[in-house]
Design brief:
The chain is of the alpha/beta class and 188 residues long. The protein has helices spanning 19-36, 52-61, 112-122, 181-185; strands spanning 12-17, 43-48, 67-74, 87-90, 100-108, 128-136, 149-153, 159-160, 176-179. The protein binds 1-O-pyrophosphono-5-O-phosphono-alpha-D-ribofuranose. 1-O-pyrophosphono-5-O-phosphono-alpha-D-ribofuranose binds at residues 47-50, 74-76, 82, 105-113, 165. 1-O-pyrophosphono-5-O-phosphono-alpha-D-ribofuranose (PRP) is lined by residues 47-50, 74-76, 82, 105-113, 165.
Length: 188
């Protein structure tokens, strides 16, 4: 078994978006969402696992009636590159028929995960469907996908923190940082 190293900050090359910037942006998104979904009782669907930190903060930034649900897909596994095949690992608990759906995602990279989820969820006849992503890497897009609420557009760096992992670690950082290449290259 690998000896686990506790000082995860040593693996970070730099801070791309600091905690205050993230928090301010999430509050701004929460205000917009509250305005747009007034009296619509939306369901915020968190795409596990990366979006849990965003969902928790976004929920607190939204001041209208809403509910939450969770869905899990996978395409990356332990790799830094997507396999291109998106698999549904865990489905929603509730029906979304007739509901206003807001999909909450930490990052849109190739867009394959969002495209898959959009196609899948639209077959369930929601009243509306929108996507909120904290981060977007437009340079990496393989499929065209409209994002209704975006926090930050970022360059094609390998980022971790605020829910985003590498090899299941670093999700607990309260900022978005870039990972030192030696960390992901040693397994590559
Ligand atoms: C990450 C991220 C998105 C997806 C985006 O999830 O949370 O769901 O990749 O990539 P794409 O636009 O190229 O499809 P990951 O598969 O790493 O799972 P995790 O959320 O459990 O970390």
């Amino acid at each position: 078994m690998n000896k686990s190293k506790d000082n995860i900050k040593e693996d970070i090359a730099g801070v791309l978006i600091d905690s205050e910037q993230v928090q301010n942006k999430v509050k701004e998104l929460g205000k917009k969402i509250s305005r747009d979904y007034k009296e619509k009782n939306p369901v915020l669907i968190s795409v596990l696992k990366g979006s849990i930190v965003l969902l928790a903060d976004l929920l607190k930034a939204v001041d209208i009636s809403c509910s939450v649900d969770f869905i899990a897909v996978s395409s990356y596994g332990e790799n830094t590159e997507t396999s291109g095949v998106v698999k549904l690992i865990m489905d929603l608990r509730e029906s979304i028929e007739g509901r206003h759906v807001l999909l909450v995602e930490d990052i849109v990279d190739t867009g394959l995960t969002m495209a898959y989820l959009k196609e899948n969820l639209l077959t369930r006849h929601p009243a509306s469907f929108k996507i909120c992503a904290l981060l977007s890497k437009p340079q990496r897009r393989q499929v065209n996908i409209d994002l209704d609420y975006i926090g930050f557009e970022i360059p094609d760096d390998f980022v971790v923190g605020y829910g985003l992992d590498y090899d299941e670690k670093y999700r607990n950082l309260d900022y978005i940082g870039t990972l030192k290449p030696r960390i992901y290259q040693k397994n590559g």
